[in-house]
Amino acid sequence: MTKEVYGAASGGRASSIPLMGGDSEPTIFEISVSGRRCGAIRDSGIESVDASDHLPLAYLRSEPVALPEVSERDLVGHFTRLTHRQYSVDLGAYPLGSCTMKYNPKLADTVAGMSGISGVHPHLPSSHSQGWLEIALEIESYLKEITGMAGATLSPAAGAQGELTGLLMMKAYHLDRGNHKTKILIPDSAHGTNPASVSLAGYSVVTVPSNEKGLVDLELLKSLVGDDVAGIMLTNPNTVGLFEEDIAEIAKAIHDVDGLLYYDGANLNAIVGIARPGDMGFDIVHSNLHKTFATPHGGGGPGSGPVAVAEKLLDFLPGPYPVRGHDGIKWTTPSKSIGRVHSFYGNAVVYARALAFMKALGGEGLRQMSQIAVLNANYLKAMISSYYPPAYEATCMHEFVVSTAALKKSFGIRALDIAKGLLDKGFHAPTVYFPLIVDEALMIEPTETESRQTLDAMAEALIELAKDALDEDAASKMAGGPRRTPVTRVDEARAARTLITTVDAHSK
Ligand SMILES: *Cc1c(COP(=O)(O)O)cnc(C)c1O
């Protein structure tokens, strides 16, 4: 038994499992050996329960579910090999613009894993979970301070859900005031989730074109503002990494028609401790704790996208949320609440991590985080700008956009080829082809966690790639890259259109 549980020495496919760098890793089903187990469950002595006595026949399986049968050794080996085939924030620089893939300090994981935090059941009554509720109130207070808002909800599980939550509050606000509004303005550089959330909330999108400086065109914006405008979704610095200098006037134009300003603060990395959306005139701000405040993300979550609001929206916050009373912290729901947007109170362990990160850095440390993020982005931009012309000249904030359109003219090398080439040089690729308004865009966000040595190495790698693009032989090699990764160039269009994620796909 022990050997079956802990060891894989007993044959099976163990000897044929490739080591790191091999061509393929079998699926966990392929290394399954009948009877192998990952843990020995002790016999409780309690008589087993027959499910058919308790569940309707229609819901019972006719055969046991096909689960992989592996020992702990097989299991750990399998996932360790998979992690070796993957690029991650723990491995190196990950300059994915807009997404803020910074290194996540292990301290935050340690705190979130403490039994008093991770072992608390969400169904506990508030009298037995005062510690957790303190955590919630504390992070809320920091978020209010950072964004300049009056209240916040920690319910939303991601940025996109925060957007929808904020827009539903905006809608409830207008309905409450008897406003008839149908439109929301969004600049053409915005993140794709913005128009999607607007549609989900039942509004129509009006696109505001950017000017040649990459900023919202104020006069054009004013011409689009009317009584039917519910609000605007903006982010500042915007999605090309530039600060919207006319923000005060934009806010006035929107407020003049009783519209609201929504701040897409998915990425607050440029402004923490320096500028506050509330002071710029925004009414609703979501922030992605899994981006700015260093909790792991990518691959679909879990995340946390709290929404902070101005005084006039407090009554519409989703409920229930915790408030401090004279006899401890209790759950409450505001009078005009839009209702529940998530089970319990959001992804709690994610905001516990973010709180640990904030407390470890402290106020001054958080400001420095933003200062270094901005400095790093400008440094890298300057290092590569003679090979990669920036899409806009102005000093950037935490990220910048360059265009590789000129390289395309030489031997047809595209932004995608440069991104793939960077993988061969040991760095993760930046964001590509976003924002849509820049031709052959590379959007680079080095973040504050990379050292000057790393930035220099990244600049050198990018410059080598730009030089290769001008050499016919090197360019033709680059077009098929990456070559040094476990999976080389894939047909991305086909992968997106005929997505097959089942085991069967491997045998086809
Ligand atoms: C990441 C991001 C979002 C969406 O956040 P998710 O947590 O992925 O839903 C929205 N806006 C901007 C600017 C972003 O960078």
TrEMBL record:
<keyword id="KW-0663">Pyridoxal phosphate</keyword>
<dbReference type="GO" id="GO:0016594">
    <property type="term" value="F:glycine binding"/>
</dbReference>
<protein>
    <recommendedName>
        <fullName>glycine dehydrogenase (aminomethyl-transferring)</fullName>
        <ecNumber>1.4.4.2</ecNumber>
    </recommendedName>
</protein>
<dbReference type="GO" id="GO:0019464">
    <property type="term" value="P:glycine decarboxylation via glycine cleavage system"/>
</dbReference>
<dbReference type="GO" id="GO:0005960">
    <property type="term" value="C:glycine cleavage complex"/>
</dbReference>
<dbReference type="InterPro" id="IPR015424">
    <property type="entry name" value="PyrdxlP-dep_Trfase"/>
</dbReference>
<dbReference type="GO" id="GO:0005829">
    <property type="term" value="C:cytosol"/>
</dbReference>
<dbReference type="GO" id="GO:0030170">
    <property type="term" value="F:pyridoxal phosphate binding"/>
</dbReference>
<feature type="domain" description="Glycine dehydrogenase C-terminal">
    <location>
        <begin position="370"/>
        <end position="469"/>
    </location>
</feature>
<dbReference type="InterPro" id="IPR020581">
    <property type="entry name" value="GDC_P"/>
</dbReference>
<feature type="domain" description="Glycine cleavage system P-protein N-terminal">
    <location>
        <begin position="129"/>
        <end position="319"/>
    </location>
</feature>
<comment type="function">
    <text>The glycine cleavage system catalyzes the degradation of glycine. The P protein binds the alpha-amino group of glycine through its pyridoxal phosphate cofactor; CO(2) is released and the remaining methylamine moiety is then transferred to the lipoamide cofactor of the H protein.</text>
</comment>
<dbReference type="InterPro" id="IPR049316">
    <property type="entry name" value="GDC-P_C"/>
</dbReference>
<dbReference type="InterPro" id="IPR015421">
    <property type="entry name" value="PyrdxlP-dep_Trfase_major"/>
</dbReference>
<dbReference type="Pfam" id="PF21478">
    <property type="entry name" value="GcvP2_C"/>
</dbReference>
<keyword id="KW-0560">Oxidoreductase</keyword>
<dbReference type="InterPro" id="IPR015422">
    <property type="entry name" value="PyrdxlP-dep_Trfase_small"/>
</dbReference>
<dbReference type="InterPro" id="IPR049315">
    <property type="entry name" value="GDC-P_N"/>
</dbReference>
<dbReference type="GO" id="GO:0004375">
    <property type="term" value="F:glycine dehydrogenase (decarboxylating) activity"/>
</dbReference>
<dbReference type="Pfam" id="PF02347">
    <property type="entry name" value="GDC-P"/>
</dbReference>
